[in-house]
Amino acid sequence: MKHYLNDGTREAPKLKVYLNLDNLYDLPADSIWPGLQGEEALHKLKEDGFEGVQVTDLSPRSDVLPCCGLDRINRPDEVEDVFKRHKDLGDACITLHLAWGIEEDEEVDALLDAVLEASEGHDLPAFVETHRATLTQDMWRTVQLLKRHPALLLNADYSHYYCGQEMVYGGLDMKLDFMNPIFDRTGFMHGRIAAPGFMQAPIDGLDEKPRLAIGGDYLADFKEMWKRAMAGFLRHAGAGDVLVFAPELLTGKFYYARVFPDAHGILREESDRYAQALLYRELAVRCFKDAQ
To answer: CATH assignment of 5-291, given 3.40.1280.10, 3.40.190.10, 3.20.20.150, 2.30.110.10?
Structure first.
């Protein structure tokens, strides 16, 4: 049985746009973000249209906006403590990096069984992220895992496939069709757009081909993937179910945002990650309407 985030209403399945708070980390001084911290920051995010936040540490949660969490689990004996911790913090759901991607199937199955059991036992929806250096880093293996674990739901961060597995190489359409089981099991989404050769690619607007898309149009490709994932959610979700879309655009200190030297030799990010997150919010709403 699928365990989506649910708001307790009898309303039709819906999209809510959160912000992963790492998006605000280490923003440049000239960002449009006003540099707020704590509850002031949350009130500003709410004013800007975000409906919740993903908190990536164990700091106390605020009631200004709904919160979800994020964690990593490597072994089954770590599972119970992680779920109890996030339940006690008041997180409505969690996304997870699981293992390292180099484990045998038997180890992976044991870990997933423990995660699914804990999610049910704690009544805490958990979404396994499609992320490099985890057990879901490979499209093929992820599809096989979904066959063996029909209750598993994913946090879709397709930048790791689009760039890490160079999806456009050899034909994107064929790979999108292969990913249909992944789209069908999406319960949460991390918003990041990649180019075929780098993980975090700026966009210039909602409709125009990005200036950096000198070959194929990576924005159009992500719109297609996002709409397919949203349509998969809508096919399976029930009354009150919620799909969270959370932009997660990370600093150059993690080698996500690209940095280039300015005229004085100081490294600068190529875009304002908060301005990009606002574009992503609008884009997600549009994609969801198209999926409906």
So the answer is: 3.20.20.150
